[in-house]
Amino acid sequence: MTAMMAHGSIPRWSGALGVCAIMAVVRPAYAEPRAVVELFTSQGCSSCPPADTIIGELAKDPNVIALSLPIDYWDYLGWKDTLADSRFSARQKAYSRMRGDRDVYTPQVVVNGSTHVIGSDRARIEGAISETQKADGVMSVPVTMTLSGKQLTVSVAASNGSAAAAHGEVWICSVTKAVPITIGRGENRGREITYHNVVRSLLKVGDWNGISGSWTVPIENISREGVDAAVVFVQDGSRDRPGPMLGAAFTPLR
């Protein structure tokens, strides 16, 4: 399913939080990943279920951070997506602007913030992961998260000297690892589909300038019903002009 969207401005999501110099390590994040894979999907898109399945498979790989970002621009087709967020639609459009194309569709996967492929094509996703890893700075910055009591600490290492990984924004996603949905109307009427690693909120926690830093976030700032994991990523560019992924980490919250 394809769509061309015109957006005015992307809503402000949140501001930066304070920096903490020292934090105790309590729960380590998963293995250092080689890719962040973002799927823009919709419950109202009949082409999306195969892509949703692939994201579930990729989510089992500790070296890949696979995320579902449900969009809302197909809601008029007869079924309002119960997980959709207009900010995800805006993020997808922002990627298109950065690439300089008009390719906004579902199911669309963006790999490491730079390359897009059809979300139902596993081979092309794997190929994009391999290709984007060759780019200078991509997924080169070590990132960790630790959970201590009611606080989550994000630590970002110093740059390895790459000019392509010298600054970026630090974001935390609250995630629900699996959400089964029974769809009552529209193109997927009567189907039950499980959505994997569904992003429920995005919170900017700071700006990274190439030197090591840590930020602490109260769990209540990202917690909502059903949230059971968190993802942090460091991304070049800005919310309005997102660039390559520089590093990321995943950790369960329960």
The whole-angstrom Rg is 17 Å
Uncertain segments:
4-30
The strand line-up of the biggest sheet is: 2-1-3-4
Q: Whole-number average pLDDT?
A: 89
Report strand %.
35-45%
* N- to C-terminal distance: 36 Å
Structural class: mainly beta
Main sheet properties: 4 strands, mixed
Helicity range: 10-25%
Treating each run of at least 4 consecutive H or I residues as one helix, how many helices?
Answer: 3
Give the H and E element order. EHEHEEHEEEEEEE
Work out the number of β strands.
Answer: 11
Coarse morphology: globular
Task: Explain what the structure shows.
This protein is mainly beta. It contains 3 helices and 11 strands. It has helices at residues 49-58, 86-99, 122-133, and strands spanning 35-41, 64-70, 108-111, 115-118, 143-148, 151-156, 168-182, 192-208, 213-218, 229-237, 242-252. The strands form 3 sheets. The chain has a 4-stranded mixed β-sheet with strand order 2-1-3-4, sandwiched between helices. A hairpin with a 4-residue loop joins strand 10 (229-237) and strand 11.
Keywords for this structure?
mainly beta; four-stranded mixed sheet; 14% helix; 36% strand; globular
Write the layout of secondary structure elements.
Layout: E1 35-41, H1 49-58, E2 64-70, H2 86-99, E3 108-111, E4 115-118, H3 122-133, E5 143-148, E6 151-156, E7 168-182, E8 192-208, E9 213-218, E10 229-237, E11 242-252
Parallel strand pairs: 1-2
Antiparallel strand pairs: 1-3, 3-4, 5-6, 6-9, 7-8, 7-10, 10-11
